[in-house]
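Justification of resources, computational component.

The compute hours requested in this renewal are based largely on the per-chain cost of generating structure records like the one below. Each record pairs the submitted sequence with a full structure-token output. That output is archived, and it is also reused by downstream analysis tasks.
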Amino acid sequence: MVTDCKRERILTAALEIFSTQGFANTTVQEIAAKAKVGKGTVYTYFATKEDVLIDLLDEGLAHMGKHIEERIKLLTDSGMKLRAILREQLRYFHNNRPLMRLLSREAWGQELGSSSIAHRIRSSYIKMLQEVIDKGIEAGELRALDSETVATALYGMVSLVALYAKDITCEAKLEHVEMTLQELFFQGVALSPAF
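The structure output for this chain reads:
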């Protein structure tokens, strides 16, 4: 039990430091000091500083995925599921700003120079979106578009808007951003189909 507590303190400290000063500008000693553990203790749980980052990103996005799956499990209509996913992803990133800042610095920007890390963190979430879209296409609820492209577009659109909206404190403004995203994704921006 004590070891899990230390691991969580290390991850919490690393999230705070990585999200504010960046992975490359952070030392293991800084993480250890913030977590109130010895530097060797960090290496007891993580072989490298990159392993700390990978665990933070993996656990953060896995938690977001579980949170969203829980919210949509009772919905049957694919359009409603996608609307709920859009809302919950935006809200999750808004409520977990350090994780969102970390993603924007390290995974989306790929400062680590490893596209495999960014790809791995996105792939399971995009796969969940793609399954919802494929079921909607099969049921005739959604247009027959390339589901992987649609899933990737939805993930990217909401993620970048969440970065833009990170400092919004007014609930009404956040709801306005959410509704604009919903309209943009489901209705587009053209006034008529012959744009």
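Residues 111-115 have pLDDT under 50 and may be disordered. The CA atoms of residues 19 and 102 lie 4 Å apart.
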